[in-house]
Amino acid sequence: MENGTLPAPVPKREYTWRETAAANLPYAAMILLGAATIALGFPRAPWAAAGAVAYGVYGVGGAVWIMIFVCPYCAYYGTRGCPCGYGLVAARLARKGDRECFAPKFKRHIPAIVPLWIIPLAAGVIALVQSFNGWLLGLVGVFAVNSYVLLPLLAQRHSCGDCPQREGCPWMGGKKNAEC
Ligand code: SF4
Residue 50 C-alpha to ligand 1 middle, in angstroms? Predict the structure, then answer.
């Protein structure tokens, strides 16, 4: 037995470095598009460039946050079964946790990164209300499609479909909830 009561699963498949890089593209695109929306939406605001940089730092920090506080409880911690490679990095950042705690940890820590989806959209809408222009509308539209459609769709089809913890995952409507 592994730490906890759940046996260590064998990953259904191991992802190549190319697949891992591809799996990170939608998140990276969201951070770049979000930063661009903040910087370009308020061209005369002195804080716009700093805000864009802060959003980028938040994006990287959010990924590290998940690696430290969620991935140690995942079946794919420390393996190449993690599609986006976080599991391998997590093994260098944090000690392995109890797999039965995955769902509660997920629920507790995912809200820390939810503003990454909201801030650029809110900033873009405010900027458009203040001064409408077509290219900014397009930028906000691309951000919305990538972040709200493409990213979750790829995650569910590509990554979550093979996950041995999907029944306990809140993202997939799982019901298991250990006290952790
Ligand atoms: S599958 Fe998700 S929770 Fe599991 S190690 Fe990878 S990124 Fe972390």
Answer: 31
Rounded Cα gap, residues 136 and 160, in angstroms: 33
Which two tokens mark 50?
């700093």
Q: Helix %, strand %, coil % for the chain, to 5?
A: 70, 0, 30
* CA of residue 129 to ligand 1 center, whole Å: 38
Q: Which protein residue's CA is at the shortest distance from atom 8 of ligand 1? A: 71
Q: What is the rounded CA–CA span in Å between residue 112 and residue 70?
A: 11
* Percent of the chain whose predicted confidence (pLDDT) is above 90: 73
State in Å: Cα 160 to ligand 1 middle. 9
Q: Is 131 helix (H, G, I), strand (E, B) or coil?
A: coil
* Distance in Å, CA 138 to ligand 1 centroid: 32
Query: At residue 162, does pLDDT exceed 80?
Result: no
Give the model confidence (pLDDT) of 42-85 as tens digits.
Answer: 999 999 999 999 999 999 999 999 999 999 999 999 999 998 99
Nearest-atom number in ligand 1 for the CA of 70 is 3
User: Whole-angstrom Cα distance, residue 64 to residue 170?
Assistant: 20
